[in-house]
Amino acid sequence: MSIAVPQTLNKALEPFLIIVGSLTVSMVLFGVFVASAGADPFEVYQTMYRAAFGTSFSWQNTLIRAAPLMLTALCTALPGYLSLIIIGGEGAVVMGGLFAALAALTIPAAPPMVVLITMALVGMAAGGLWLTIGGALRHYRAVNETISSLLLNYIAIALLNHLVTSTFRDPESLNHPSTHHIGEANMIGLIPGTDLHWGLVFGVVACVIAWFLMHHTVFGFASQIAGGNVRAAQIAGLPVGRLILIVCFVAGAAGGLAGMVEVAAIHGRANDTLNANYGYAGILVAFVARNNPLAIIPVAVLLGGIRASSGLLQRAHELPDATVLVMQGIIFLVILFSETLYGRFSRLQKQGAS
Amino acid sequence: MEVGWWGVLIAVLGGAIRIGTPFLFVSLGECLTEKSGRINLGLEGTLVMGAMTGYAVSLHSGSPWLGVLCAGLAGMVLGALHSWLCGFQRVNDIAVGIAMMLFGTGLAFFLGKPYIQPSAPRLPSIDLGAWSEIPQLKAALQINALFLVGIVVAIALAWMLKNTAWGLKVRVVGESADAARALGLPVDRIRILSTAQGGFLAGIGGSYLSLYYPFNWSEGLSSGQGLMAVALVIFARWQPMGCLWVSLLWGGAAALGPSLQSVGITGGYYIFNAIPYIMTLAVMIITCSPRRTLVGVPHELTVTR
User: What three-state secondary structure class fits B19?
Assistant: First the structure.
């Protein structure tokens, strides 16, 4: 007796079941962990839920943290379609934020809207070009893109620190070297009726556009072919090099936009707070979402929620703030491990096919 | 103005040893891991975990050397976990490495909260500069025994990889898993052992940070030495002795900025710190080519395919 599951539903069902299963397993593991630290796991989960998704205030807190992750996840997810593993999101954020701030400072007299648009364009270009270096080195010199993008992160951070402590330093930023402030009038506003800044909208829109680009255009189709088999793509006459460069540029532009938002919505200046590990967290979001831009949105929200719950956990259960780092680590390890389970449920698949 | 530019040179040499030692341990660990065909980006987590464990054990037991040992053991557990997870089909070792980095640092910060304030016994140093009259030279030649241990480990590792059956097995597994299987070698077990040993070394590197230099335990202790290990091993061309020289080079580059300040050159501090990365990238650009892979690279390594 078999239940006839349509093939398409089955295709969606497998990842869904595996993800839900892995989340359950990680919650059990983390529960054991906090129990061994002397806290009641059920109460801890209740607190976390309240802190992350319980009230509209906690939702805002969660979404603010999720927004940059959506953008930085694209830095890894899009090149993933070309079978490139790029981990240079951190560098794209840093370069995007730095150059967006410098762009705003060069046109102090312009109307705020012009300043913001210039910042966004310059930030995206800077992040895009920075990430494209890795893709170009891969294609033209066969330099491994994972390592080069990692190295470029450090070089970007050094460049940022160098410039904000020397040439572009605001002399009044004594303890925390920064550029001059871009001006309160030029700050990006809040979404009306909320305490959320526009970064969240940018994140969601960018993910939707990226999904459309990769799944519903000829360009995306060509990229997927080039990612599957470079030789076949070349024989089919696809410009593999150009595809790599464009995809890396778009991916880096998303990271650069995240950096621009950090400057224009939160700090108002470029300084080392740009190097807040959004890039590295974004890599994990991309891996867990299996590079699908639409799946990035909920995964980023989940991770944002976990991070947002850190403060309340500390106050309510006297657990150190690193508790959420442990939980993140456990969840990601289990989900990455679950990758091996795909295709193992052959019974499910056969039934689906019948 | 007695020492002047000589002072810079001495400070760079001293810094090369002092700052280079943790680099040496993590890079030797990464080198062994990569020789077996695995890449471990999670050594950053291992390093921080080792630093915390070493500090805590040293504080409780009063013996810093016991701390070093336990730091190694903690690193070994994390390394084994990493490699065990990567042994499953389709599990991506780069992604697992980043998750292990989060997990290791998170666990270390979690368990290490109570150890931020108290002060643990420090690893002793050996005064090789007692003969000298110059205080700078004396300070530079205060060498920690772990550095000497690191040199011995580098020589031993190079010799073992080249001359022993175990070393040959590791290299075969790293060059071609298929060939290794055809020879009847247990590929996954060899990789788990190599990665665990690599984790042991990285854990020791972490304990050097907390028990000798900078000698404290805090959440900002590591400045990414674990992540850099991957780049360092490439620079060293997967040679243990290369790891030694490159670690010293990177340590010296990191000491260059602060020591130039003593002669009045204050700018470019961050740029000096970035020199190792720029050099590694330059070396990769020069030596890579679309027609051949890097010299000395284990062919099973995911980052070279």
Answer: helix
d(CA A68, CA A281): 10
Indicate the pTM of the whole model.
0.87
Say how far apart CA A299 and CA A72 lie, in whole Å.
12
Of A92, A88, A26, nearest to A336 (Cα)? Answer: A26
**A332 contacts on B by Cβ (under 8 Å):** 95, 98-99, 102-103
ipTM summary value = 0.88
- In angstroms, rounded to a whole number, what is the distance separating the alpha carbons of residues B290 and B281? 16
CB-based contact B102 A165, cutoff 8 Å: no
Per-residue pLDDT tens for A183-241?
888 888 888 888 888 999 999 999 999 999 999 999 999 999 998 888 888 888 889 99
**Burial class (CB within 10 angstroms; exposed 0-12, middle 13-18, buried 19+) of A25:** middle
Contact status of B49 with chain A (Cβ, < 8 Å):
no
Q: Does A344 touch chain B (CB under 8 A)?
A: no
Q: How many structural domains does chain B have?
A: 1
- Among the listed residues A66, A64, A86, the one whose alpha carbon sits nearest the alpha carbon of residue A77: A86
Radius of gyration (Cα) for chain A, nearest Å? Answer: 22
| A10 lies within 8 A of chain B by CB | no
- Per DSSP, B304 falls in state G
Q: Are strands B125-127 and B142-144 parallel, antiparallel or unpaired?
A: antiparallel
CATH number of domain containing B263? 1.10.3470
* Interface with B, mutate which of A336, A337, A338, A342 (most B CBs under 10 A): A336
Contact between B274 and A332 using a beta-carbon 8 Å cutoff: no
Q: What is the count of residue pairs from A and B with beta carbons less than 8 Å apart?
A: 145
Its domain, for residue B12, covers 4-304
